[in-house]
Amino acid sequence: MSDTTVTDTVREPAPAAIEAPADRTRRLRVGGLMLVFALIGLGLAIFTGGGKATFQLVSGDLENNLLGVPAQPVAIVLGALGIFAAVAYVMRRVPQKYSGWLAVVLGVCFIGAFLCWAAAGKTFPLANQFQGTLNFATPLILGALAGVLCERAGVINIAIEGQFLVGAFTAAVVSSTTGSAAAALVAAAVSGVLMAWLLAVFSIKYLVNQVVLGVVLVVFASGITGYLFDQFLQEDAEALNTPSVLSAVKIPGLGDIPFIGPILFNQTILVYLTYLAVAVVTFVLFQTRWGLRVRAVGEHPKAADTVGIKVKRVRYSAVLWAGVLAGLGGAFFTVGYAGSFSKEMTAGNGFIALAALIMGRWHPIGAMVAALFFGFATQLQSQLQIIQTPIPGELLLMAPYLATVIAVAGLVGRVRAPKADGEPYVTE
User: Fold this and answer.
1) Which residues have CB under 8 Å from 80's CB, separation 6+?
2) Nearest-CA neighbor of 66 among 16, 119, 13, 108?
3) Residue 52, phi-psi category: left (phi > 0), alpha (psi -120 to 50), beta (remainder)
4) What pTM, to 2 d.p., does this model score?
5) Helix 160-178 × helix 181-200 angle, to 10°
6) DSSP class of 284
7) Residues 345, 168 contacting (CB under 8 angstroms)
8) Do the Cβ atoms of 143 and 364 come closer than 8 Å?
9) 24-28, 72-76, 98-102, 117-121 — which one is most confidently predicted on average?
10) Tens-digit pLDDT profile for residues 185-204
11) Is 124 helix (H, G, I), strand (E, B) or coil?
């Protein structure tokens, strides 16, 4: 080979450096969305009032543990940094694998500038904001993990909302009648498995359309829990609908860490189980033989069957384990937070968990982050009402859902579901 040929070969750009048209379209779309939010953040910074923005770092302490910052200067710095992050994303000034961090930087800057604008001359309960975020996000995380297990195995689980309702109802009744928190959680998990069994049988064995089946199961759960509530729980609420709310358990040492300790490590056993569930599902899916089989039957079931994997058995097991997580997620609404059951109390959170699953790109960690995002947006609207910002209350109520729609539309364009997701497997 001649020297000229070698030189030409070396100077050819690597295929990875060439941006595909689809990637370029997505980059420009996401970058444009980022730039819009960056400009909004900078606009808020410019119109931020004078004085300090004070942030309360410990719940209930209005005199100590307060952080005061000059509202407008900090907001302007954050707004400018957000503009820089958005422009860097659009212009590809960082390697592709790090571009996601620019979106994180923009998100932090936008939220920071917004909070400086909202809290200028006021006190914003920052500790309550993060505590409420975790409360709202806990059932969403468990529901999203259930969706990850199902869809990684090739089964669409629209029925998470129904599993939430049944889990919440069962936990309330069992806790009220037995007085045992452990029994309530076990019963909620079992009820979630029963709902998952219906999903598995009709979708895997009888090949029913999985989207339609999921909607039917949600309607069924709504109807059966509503009927039982009217017939029994309302008639004898003292005996059947007075569940004990789980008490917080402080982890020694970790619970004493300033600011984050009381938020993360002074929680109920159900929140700790959620932490554990994220770690376990991530490890099992990506580090075990069973997890490899689950992903295989979700991507190419025929190839998995060819090498001896029992496709239907693996799908059954994934859907049933997902039912455990969804049932526990439902229990949070009654024994983890509200202290009683009411009709339709899950309020569509099962469908938000599906959105978190998609935003998280069918990955447990991504789904958790997406659930925390929605929890943050939900808690923020209530905090903003408390400190009386000039934003109309109706807009605040729709803000969490609007934020979720924008995030899904802006961030999901490039990803895809498992290839065989929703496709029944028929053996020849």
Assistant:
1) 42
2) 119
3) beta
4) 0.89
5) 150
6) H
7) yes
8) no
9) 72-76
10) 999 999 999 999 999 999 99
11) strand
Buried b (16+ CB within 10 A) or exposed e, 95-117: eeeebeebbebbbebbbbbbbbb
Mean per-residue pLDDT, 167-188: 95
SS3 content of the chain, % helix, strand, coil (to 5): 70, 5, 25
Residue 412 confidence (pLDDT): 54
- Whole-number Å distance between alpha carbons of 420 and 243: 41
- Mind listing the domains of the chain with CATH numbers? 20-124 (no CATH), 129-411 (1.10.3470)
Using alpha carbons, select from 89, 92, 85 the residue that is nearest to residue 112: 85
What does 182-195 look like in DSSP terms, one character per residue? HHHHHHHHHHHHHH
Contact 166, 327 (CB under 8 A): yes
As a whole number of angstroms, the distance between CA 71 and CA 23 comes to 38
- Residue 271 clears pLDDT 90, i.e. is over it: yes
- In angstroms, the CA 404 to CA 32 distance is 17
pLDDT at site 416: 76
Rounded Cα distance between 33 and 62, Å, is 38
Token duo for residue 383: 């905090």
Q: Percent of the chain beyond pLDDT 90?
A: 56
Q: Which amino acid is at 125?
A: P
pLDDT band at 232 (very low <50, low <70, confident <90, very high): very high
DSSP letter assigned to residue 58: S
Distance CA 241, CA 169 (A): 9
Name the residue with tokens 């059947």.
Answer: 240
What is residue 237's three-state secondary structure?
A: helix
Could you give phi then psi for residue 322, rounded to 5 degrees? -60, -35
Residue 38 in contact with residue 83, Cβ under 8 Å? yes
CB 71 within 8 A of CB 119: yes
- Decide which of 52 and 6 is more confident: 52
- Check whether 1 has a pLDDT greater than 90: no
Cβ(159)–Cβ(217) below 8 Å: yes
